[in-house]
Amino acid sequence: MREINIALIGYNFMGKAHSYALGNVNFFFPNKIRLNKKVIVGRTLNLLKQAAEEYGWLEYSTDWREVILRDDIDVVCIATPTSSHKEIAIEAAKAGKHVLCEKPLGMNAEEARQMWIAVKDVEIVHMVGHNYRRVPAIALAKKLIDEGKLGNIYHFRGCYLQDWLADPRAPMSWRLDKEIAGSGAHGDLNAHLIDLARYLVGEMDQVIGVEKTFVHQRGEGNSQANVTVDDSTAFLAKFANGATGTFEASRMASGRKNHNSLEINGSKGSLFFDFEHMNELGFWSKEDELEVQGFRKIIVTEDTHPYMKAWWPAGHLLGYQNTFVNQYADFIHAIINKTKVEPNFYDGWMCNQVLDSVSTSIDTLTWEKIRGS
Amino acid sequence: MREINIALIGYNFMGKAHSYALGNVNFFFPNKIRLNKKVIVGRTLNLLKQAAEEYGWLEYSTDWREVILRDDIDVVCIATPTSSHKEIAIEAAKAGKHVLCEKPLGMNAEEARQMWIAVKDVEIVHMVGHNYRRVPAIALAKKLIDEGKLGNIYHFRGCYLQDWLADPRAPMSWRLDKEIAGSGAHGDLNAHLIDLARYLVGEMDQVIGVEKTFVHQRGEGNSQANVTVDDSTAFLAKFANGATGTFEASRMASGRKNHNSLEINGSKGSLFFDFEHMNELGFWSKEDELEVQGFRKIIVTEDTHPYMKAWWPAGHLLGYQNTFVNQYADFIHAIINKTKVEPNFYDGWMCNQVLDSVSTSIDTLTWEKIRGS
Amino acid sequence: MREINIALIGYNFMGKAHSYALGNVNFFFPNKIRLNKKVIVGRTLNLLKQAAEEYGWLEYSTDWREVILRDDIDVVCIATPTSSHKEIAIEAAKAGKHVLCEKPLGMNAEEARQMWIAVKDVEIVHMVGHNYRRVPAIALAKKLIDEGKLGNIYHFRGCYLQDWLADPRAPMSWRLDKEIAGSGAHGDLNAHLIDLARYLVGEMDQVIGVEKTFVHQRGEGNSQANVTVDDSTAFLAKFANGATGTFEASRMASGRKNHNSLEINGSKGSLFFDFEHMNELGFWSKEDELEVQGFRKIIVTEDTHPYMKAWWPAGHLLGYQNTFVNQYADFIHAIINKTKVEPNFYDGWMCNQVLDSVSTSIDTLTWEKIRGS
Amino acid sequence: MREINIALIGYNFMGKAHSYALGNVNFFFPNKIRLNKKVIVGRTLNLLKQAAEEYGWLEYSTDWREVILRDDIDVVCIATPTSSHKEIAIEAAKAGKHVLCEKPLGMNAEEARQMWIAVKDVEIVHMVGHNYRRVPAIALAKKLIDEGKLGNIYHFRGCYLQDWLADPRAPMSWRLDKEIAGSGAHGDLNAHLIDLARYLVGEMDQVIGVEKTFVHQRGEGNSQANVTVDDSTAFLAKFANGATGTFEASRMASGRKNHNSLEINGSKGSLFFDFEHMNELGFWSKEDELEVQGFRKIIVTEDTHPYMKAWWPAGHLLGYQNTFVNQYADFIHAIINKTKVEPNFYDGWMCNQVLDSVSTSIDTLTWEKIRGS
């Protein structure tokens, strides 16, 4: 049986999610391939050892460069803070490894462009970890749009709201340090919305945004640190196909825990999704008889829905972690079959372009054109 | 018993709503005053006569100027298209009549300013028909915010979505003619959101918007006419108190009938309202015990809730029309007690200022400052 | 113009609802008839006078017998406690007056039978005040079922939950006195569910129930009184057409204010209704494409929906009181056109039969057959 | 490191769920124990081999008796149809193995009693697979009730609705054969509701039910088979503590996929749960300030909620499969710490008693007392 050996860089929240998915992808998507969780890589030895043990990695290492060069490593998964994505991904590509990198791909569009350049002519599979594309309800939304069930698209409306910073006393974190995270709610949450908007509606042409940092220092007593990223960023968009869009990301929205929601309106129908009810897709169709038109709540757990044949009988819900399993199923499938997968580094670059244009617009106070490829 | 004689200008959708409310306000808010639906005014005689009969008006007239000058008229209610608001309202004020004018107050801020000038030193009660302030759930929201239950306000997020133009074959209407309506979704729907934002969060400082007309001609066969207003307008706002806002009005949102929704996030709590569930207010409070924190769905029908003592026992829902009754209760109360009421012509002017600044920003492609009074 | 003169017996909650509806039915359903709120009848003079004034009645009287016999009275509306329904209704029928009587029709099936006997051969229109049939969403449900959209009906599931007695300290009321009210939650709330079940699914064949009085005395200090009715009654039903049913009425369901909900499942579809969202009907259809099957939330406010042409544009919600206006529109229509209307006294009798059979089953501890007509 | 070796009997839907959980319990609940998926047991060799491979079992066998007797097996998990539970469980207990058995425990109360007798004096951990107790929202409900947040319990209201048999053309299955399944919707779905009612409210005293088989033959062409179980069973219950209950299980509820829902009303508060939104708990509290009382939607994903420290940050939802992981975490914890766990075979027996009493009541047409232990 063919084996594929994985190296994972990072062992925190995302490292755990990737480890979980790697341990379950074959269970749900059997493919005659043995996936080995070979090496997990991190910097803090005691935590790394514990993660290796709990998450079932055969080895651990503090030297990602060395690991990437190992002949027995086939795949490199990057689940580190954004600031290290570029270097690791480019080295992995040079070493001919398949790469799955967390989002946002780069600290900015220029980094992402270099990453795209590094992979585009190499025979590897590259992917960006926009796991929300792998929610079955989102995959179904894509299918319905492609089938024309919405007609011409008029509006995209996305909100990704969390509240872990709403309390001014919430502690400091690397995610609030621009040097490490690149940006705040914008790069973390709007990146997901932008990817979904590109996936479902298409490319944006122009954007203008507003960002806000409500709490400028966090921490306790003497260990106060400056918050150097945005707490929230909202922006307007004009899509290439004529649709208009509103986007908002915030970590200050009290009561909203992981409210990744979107609505798309077209001439013939509308779709609604909210990650807090991730197994459901709202769908309204003008083609229904007039007297029974209404938003349907599709419970996306039927055998015939995307990804669902692999899981449970109808009505047995999926959770957050399942999206990572679905993602790895597609990634591994591409490796085995030597095909491409989306979102890949090109998509990651495009996403970074939008992020950057929004940031620029905040400085210039006017609409910025997305440069495109 | 003291009597108050009303003249109503307009007999269509809004004319019907006002007539209804005038016929019911004393039933629910008894006040020892007899309200007489004295004269209804319009231009098309046969329709006017029918309206007078069905809606219970004692007289009808096609000459609003004459009616306004009648000694036996105490109150003038303006439920006409926006283009005639200014002239009627100013004449009514000159004649010393109390005035309730539909929204938006003026075709633009300059008109509204003149209207405000005309009333501000006259001893009359003036009001703008932003009836959504009279939804008990909205009045409760105001109370909770004033009590500090949300802490510092971070975000306002308003969407007012309808779909009656989503189909490109939907017919032409005066509401799509800039000369009569002033603007499209913007003046019609964003006007309500702006009024609610000012009421609940405070004044805005700067805005930038995007508008779109998706369908440029409507009508059938030879009777095609140009649509000269926006089908949708979205904008970003910076509030004077530091909060950020997103606003979107559209008549192209398939499946959304009268989806007037808003969410406000603060450091200690959040509120959510959707007119499609107009008897409910969503409320999340950080002061709840941690393990039971969650958005409450308050059914705003208790005796202790604003306006509700006048209506039915708890759990017996109000409808759209009740907001007009509540509005007239407040208006008549101000007349009787010689007090002020909000939103008045000053508020209407401020609302028009925001509308105008958004429109300007669409031309200048940059943030526009709200001029203020 | 033809005039119809109304006498209303009762001026409390239901008296207010009827007065409201009588004052508005012609506004929304113009019919070239003048309805006069002629006389309101009650026992407590000062309250009666106040009600007459506030609710706009031309006269008031404390002698219902005298009023019923007046030549200038055409219609008698009975909005009194259940114990007086029979006597008033039978006298009104003898006097040849049209009668609209609140529910439940009689204190028991025998009373209701006598009432039915009294009206069935007289040329009057008789109706029972099951206003929930006049919710547009319920009328639409009836239409969809009649069109076969649910296929064979398998289940009816009704819950009518309130909470005004959940607190043991809630005060005594005539509604808790068996001599006046007949029964508690059962006759008050199950009566509505039974009427809706008969309307939507058909007659029941057998029932068995459980009732409970959780708090046996209410009141303060020395003025404690015995509660002689049920706080809650639930029952199972076998319908004549083979469907099974579950019913539950309670005034002890903390947090549920007027939660009158029902679900009907059939071989081809399902319907769901909850009065707390009274403008919506849930509908699931097997005839939808497999991948987009889901419960639709139909906002029942389109012109094409039952009753809605009379009201407001789509998306402008109705409230509790509108159901009474719709009810009077149908009642007056039947009077004018000399037709029948449902639910009439026959339906009221059938409803009382089910109520009685449930009560008997609680004593006999076994299934009771509904006797039928 | 200590090792625990597992044998699993059954490889279908439940076998997959158990295999999944066994493969993930240590990942989320690290405990210094190595769990080995040692042997999977089934009857159909080719399917068994495939399951062993896909689900990661080290060995497979068609002889459960032999496997149970192996010295290197510590735990026996029974995921077979109900008819084989008794024999396997008793043999496992005799062999001194810990046992986790799927629900319902026995074909009837007598079988379950024998199983309880077999384990009660043996030093093993025994558990029944009522996985819904391991939904964090349900565990939180238990905690809130135990803390007195609901006051005295008045009502339990449970519905477990599916629709896979609603279409008369749905195929035959072992689940519709009384010899193998014991009963239909009753034993399959009401068993879960009964377990949750016992867990949250307490023991029942009396019950009466109604069952229905709507479609008596299923299958195609010549291979029609008789359906010998109920399609739906509903029952009323009187709880020992005075509360009343309604229960309904159906596989004929079109549009309901796995609608396992319950509501509990008490003198001080209410709880609501629906598995279709399994990460949420509805909670209403009289102790809230009057004007903001309302059902809260608690998103049960905080660190402080039951089981959640093991999973993801707040707002990242769990799915169906996570309940099995939580269940095994508790089961393994009990094995390691030599403690008891619930629901155990005693609970399984009590559940079977209620199931049986309902069935008896359907024959006797009167209330049946639950016998108790």
From TrEMBL, chains A, B, C, D:
<dbReference type="Pfam" id="PF01408">
    <property type="entry name" value="GFO_IDH_MocA"/>
</dbReference>
<keyword id="KW-0560">Oxidoreductase</keyword>
<feature type="domain" description="Gfo/Idh/MocA-like oxidoreductase N-terminal">
    <location>
        <begin position="4"/>
        <end position="130"/>
    </location>
</feature>
<dbReference type="InterPro" id="IPR036291">
    <property type="entry name" value="NAD(P)-bd_dom_sf"/>
</dbReference>
<dbReference type="Pfam" id="PF22725">
    <property type="entry name" value="GFO_IDH_MocA_C3"/>
</dbReference>
<dbReference type="InterPro" id="IPR050463">
    <property type="entry name" value="Gfo/Idh/MocA_oxidrdct_glycsds"/>
</dbReference>
<dbReference type="InterPro" id="IPR000683">
    <property type="entry name" value="Gfo/Idh/MocA-like_OxRdtase_N"/>
</dbReference>
<feature type="domain" description="GFO/IDH/MocA-like oxidoreductase">
    <location>
        <begin position="140"/>
        <end position="271"/>
    </location>
</feature>
<protein>
    <submittedName>
        <fullName>Gfo/Idh/MocA family oxidoreductase</fullName>
    </submittedName>
</protein>
<dbReference type="InterPro" id="IPR055170">
    <property type="entry name" value="GFO_IDH_MocA-like_dom"/>
</dbReference>
